[in-house]
Amino acid sequence: MCGIIGILKKENSELSDNLVQSLIDLEYRGYDSAGIAIVHNSSIKIEKCLGAPSQYMDLDRFKKNIGEEKILTTVGIGHNRWATHGKPSISNAHPHLDCGGDIAVVHNGTILNYESLKENLKKQGHNFKSDTDTEVVPHLIEENMKKGLSLEDAIVESASLLEGSFGLAIIHKDYPKTLFVLKNGSPISIGISNEMFVVASSTNAILRYTDRYLVLEDGEMAKLDAENMSHNIFKYKQPARSRLYKAEQVIEGILLEDLSKGDFDTFMQKEIFEQPATTRSTILGRTNTEEGLAVLGGLIDYKEKLRNIDNLYIVGCGTAYNAGMLGKELIENLTPINVSAQIASEFRYRKQNFSPDNSVFLSISQSGETADTLESLKEMKRKGFTTLGIVNVVGSAIAHESDAGIYTRAGTEIGVASTKAFTAQAITLYLFSLSLARVHGMSESSGISFIKELESIPDIMKKVLENHQEIERIAEVFRDIEKIQFLGRGIHMPIAYEGALKFKELTYMEAGSYPLGELKHGPMAVIDDMSLSVVILPKDDLFSIGSISIEQIKSKSGRLLVITDEEGAKSPVMRLADEIIVIPKLNNPVMYPLIEVLPLQLFAYYFAKQLGNNIDKPRNLAKSVTVQ
Ligand code: M6R
Predict the structure, then answer these.
(1) N or C: which end of the chain has fewer CB within 10 A?
(2) Cβ(399) to ligand 1 under 6 A?
(3) Please, are residues 208 and 258 in contact by the beta-carbon 8 Å criterion?
(4) DSSP annotation string for 28-81
(5) HSE of 576 in the Cβ direction (CA atoms, 13 Å)?
(6) Residues facing 165 on adjacent strands
(7) Of all atoms in ligand 1, which is nearest to the CA of residue 418?
(8) Would the pLDDT of 30 be above 90?
């Protein structure tokens, strides 16, 4: 949610090109507007655009306005916006300036007390040009400098007045060799090479330049100096500002090719088709087939705790929550443990009845940054719970805060609509469920066959994806529908929810999702010949009861798409379906969710494609939601 970048180089270069490239690398974090600012001939020069920088940032115009073919500079900052305060517009796009146009600031996060700060600053004569919370920052710094403070002191003084969350990068027209960075609640990393510093909301935007980086913690500020390529990091609230020495880290788990679409039309398409490979990678080295065990190194210190739990909370948002619901179905199916799967934004504010003595808290997150999930985790830590995380982004806040966890190893996911991250979360939950089941009564032979089936999933996924043209055809068949609902029972219910979430994110159409048996208790009212019901119904022990719902949908003239397996497809009830997507038959029905989600991802993808929607960047959304 908003992406910031800052680049400081030892030597002059065409930095604006780098800034825009980095904004493109960070575009998944926000894309309603963007901007860059550089220090050039002792003044701040700004270029902004409405919409995604990859499409709308016009560097030629920037160069023309400045009157130079090559704009050489040593420092600049940039920002991709996901609007929270004030609508997407050029004046609300970052960077924001002080009255004198000397100081430029980019910000990721929310400044909670900006209204009172703004009121005071206005009384002191400051002139505001945007509706954003961010704009108070350059004006505060300006005000403090007017009082005689140095730039560094003015930033420190201003930061101490801010409440809320922020990642900030700040430049000043008179300091072309200095870049200031602050962190409180929003992620910031500092990439380091011999020639440059690159400050970014995510290491994704650093990797292009270097794989060495430092992580700022909350309450820290860095002064980066290109004169001698030095950095001074300190706690900005501590008067002594004692220098903190941090170990450099190496970026892991991201490849530069993850940041490009390769031969695919969109990142989402690429990520859908990567799932056989990412699934393999999630499982790799985490099974002991001879003994039917899951080998989860990250949880090794919590083996005893997990052996003795009676209850488990699973918490996440959006797709991660849907994976959590699947985890609940699985774990309750395979073990005697009670599982409460909850949406993080609700969980935080609800009374929770499990006790830390015999329960564990598990959060799930692709980005590892989602504010609601992170705050739930912190709250449960305060309450004394053991906190585990299933996280994709290595070293992210949730990974860092959790007592222990399992990385999902899906690789970088750029498409805002989650696909490979979901299947990686699901696979991780299957491994986690197996580890719990084996200490709660599952036999060795059942463990062995569970692993064998799990390890066969990547090849089966490949087969399912080979059917993509048929799914594209089916999306065309239903092009004229006015309403849609996704239905599934038991272990298929979370997949119905995930199918609906994908569909609404991409097509902007409202999509219902219900347990199949709930249909007759209300959702049936929407069924008519312009409605499509997508029913997930492979041949398992709920097939017969589910077939009744198919009859009910058809009796109300509803249109019907069924996802079933080869066995289910032979059933006479399938003659009622307008279209059927057939998936391979599995020996262990508990594994169906892992493959039945793929046609739903493709269906949403092709449906949105024919509508001409922006697949990778659906309107109003952002990849990581770091505001509450
Ligand atoms: O990064 P997280 O997994 O914590 O994100 C949670 C949700 O914001 C995310 O899954 C969102 O629902 C996706 N856009 C779904 O496709």
Answers:
(1) C
(2) no
(3) no
(4) GG--SEEEEEEEETTEEEEEEEES-HHHH--HHHHHHHHT-SS--EEEEEEEEE
(5) 21
(6) 110
(7) 16
(8) no
What does the DSSP assignment read for 456-495?
HHHHHHHHHHHTHHHHHHHHHHTTT-SEEEEEE-GGGHHH
The one-letter amino acid code at 71 reads I
CB 505 less than 6 A from any atom of ligand 1? yes
Q: 547-560, pLDDT tens digit by residue?
A: 999 999 999 999 99
- pLDDT on residue 506: 97
Closest C-alpha residue for ligand 1 atom 7:
318
Give 281-305 pLDDT, tens digit per residue. Answer: 999 999 999 999 999 999 999 999 9
Q: Is 623 a catalytic residue?
A: yes
Task: Check pLDDT > 80 for residue 373.
Answer: yes
| pLDDT tens track for 66-123 | 988 889 999 999 999 988 888 899 999 999 999 999 999 999 989 999 999 999 999 9
Ligand 1: nearest atom to the Cα of 318: 12
Distances from the Cα of 375 to the Cα of 82, 378, 618, angstroms = 21, 5, 26
Q: Measure the CA–CA gap between 451 and 290, rounded to whole angstroms.
A: 10
For residue 1, the model assigns a pLDDT of: 67
What is the Cα–Cα distance from 429 to 8, expressed in whole angstroms? 42
Question: Quick one: which of 376, 318, 388, 329 has its CA closest to 623?
Answer: 318
Give the mean pLDDT of the chain.
Answer: 94
Contact 594, 536 (CB under 8 A): no
- Convert the pLDDT of each residue in 397-412 to its tens digit: 899 999 999 999 999 9
CA 325 to ligand 1 centroid distance, Å? 14
Give the C-alpha separation, 569 to 575, whole Å: 9
CB-side neighbour CA atoms (13 Å) of 103: 25
Say which of 2, 48, 328, 617 is annotated catalytic: 2
Judge if the beta carbon of residue 417 lies within 6 A of ligand 1: yes
- What atom in ligand 1 is closest to the CA of residue 422? 10
Ligand 1 center from residue 323 Cα (angstroms): 11
User: Looking up tokens 């009212």, which residue turns up?
Assistant: 525
pLDDT tens-digit series, residues 302-345: 999 999 999 999 999 999 999 999 999 999 999 999 999 999 99
The tokens for 291 are: 């003994």
